[in-house]
Write a structure and sequence with these properties.
Oligomer: single chain
CATH architecture of the largest domain: 3-Layer(aba) Sandwich
Structural class: alpha/beta
Order of helices and strands: EHEEHEHHEHEEHEEEHEEHEHH
Number of helices: 10
Helix content: 25-40%
CATH topology of the largest domain: Rossmann fold
Strand order of the largest sheet: 3-2-1-4-5-6-11
Shape: globular
Strand content: 15-25%
Largest sheet: 7 strands, parallel
């Protein structure tokens, strides 16, 4: 039985990843600074610990011989958290410290296979000014000029893991996630991302009401459902390809049209009120050429399918808290 350590197992993607690994027959230890908010962890063991502390990182890696490490733990959130600038120091310090600690422990304890979750936020802001973004192939990451400190930290940590791969023989796999969404993810409180925020707003307002959208709503993104994301992650980990590689959808949609799609799924007619707010880049789309060439895989779910599942889960959460 393979043994996996999942850091960030109390979060959205990490929680789903634990379930996926258990379904494949792994023994899994999950670690996070908090328990999962929306469901009991499927991990064989779940340790609550602060991965910024070296002692915690040593403890979780010292007593079990792990075959694989999945490092998803980070200080992160949606545009309302990342793009205000108010949290930059915490984001950079917390996430970089976690990555420095965990890659060093992988080296010290002989974990030979490591997954690191990077982000599409590493791409240069100048490549994302057009809402009709043609796609971001991996090679355009350099010359580097991310639009946020969150993106700079992710880019630094990519290079950190690749350096350890070169110098210490660790088999590293890096994915750049493009807006992963789904059930059992943050949907309120300020750290939620666009699909969850829009679903919450639509679920909270009766038909004929109004929801707020930041900016003019013509900024565009692609959104990938969590099950598709995990398929990409597992295929990457089972391959000989290190990456970095995009894991995201190429179905580009404006935030206005995202809101209209959620309204249609909810069976509601609502007015959109555009207000000032943090926006990020104007247009971002995943280019999936490399992942298809290397792994023979690309996402297949249309946005509507995953959004329907997500909306109804968030609608149920809204009704619970009403």
């Amino acid at each position: 039985m393979k043994k996996a350590l999942v850091c960030g197992a109390g979060g959205f993607i990490g929680g789903h990843l634990v379930k996926r690994l258990k379904a494949e027959g792994y023994w899994v230890r999950g670690v996070d600074i908090k328990q999962h908010e929306y469901s009991d962890s499927a991990a064989d063991e779940f340790i609550v610990g602060d991965l910024r502390e070296q002692s915690v990182c040593r403890k979780i890696t010292s007593d079990v011989k792990f075959d694989e490490l999945y490092q998803l733990a980070a200080d992160m959130g949606g545009a309302g958290y990342i793009f205000t600038g108010d949290h930059d120091a915490c984001v950079m310090h917390n996430s970089a410290t976690i990555n420095l600690n965990m890659v060093e422990e992988a080296k010290n304890t002989g974990i030979k296979k490591v997954f690191y979750s990077s982000s599409a936020c590493i791409y240069p802001e100048g490549q994302q000014l057009d809402p009709n973004n043609p796609g971001l192939p991996e090679a355009v990451a350099y010359p580097a000029c991310p639009d946020s400190e969150y993106g700079w930290e992710k880019l630094f940590s990519e290079r950190l893991y690749l350096s350890y791969a070169r110098n210490y023989g660790i088999k590293v796999h890096i994915a750049r996630f493009h807006n992963i969404f789904g059930s059992e993810g943050t949907w309120d409180g300020g750290k939620e991302k666009a699909p969850a925020a829009v679903c919450r707003k639509v679920a909270s307002v009766p038909s004929g009401g109004q929801i707020e959208i930041w900016g003019d709503g013509e900024q565009t993104r692609t959104f990938l459902y969590i099950d598709e994301c995990l398929e990409g992650v597992r295929r990457l980990m089972e391959s000989e390809f290190a990456g970095p590689v995009n894991i995201g959808s190429d179905e580009l949609i404006s935030i206005n049209n995202l809101a209209r799609l959620v309204m249609r799924l909810a069976g509601k007619e609502l007015e959109i009120n555009h207000i000032k707010g943090p926006l990020g880049v104007r247009g971002r789309c995943s280019d999936n050429t490399l992942i298809y060439n290397k792994l023979g895989w690309r996402p297949t779910w249309p946005l509507t399918r995953g959004l329907d599942l997500t909306y109804h889960w968030i609608d149920a959460q809204v009704k619970k808290t009403a």
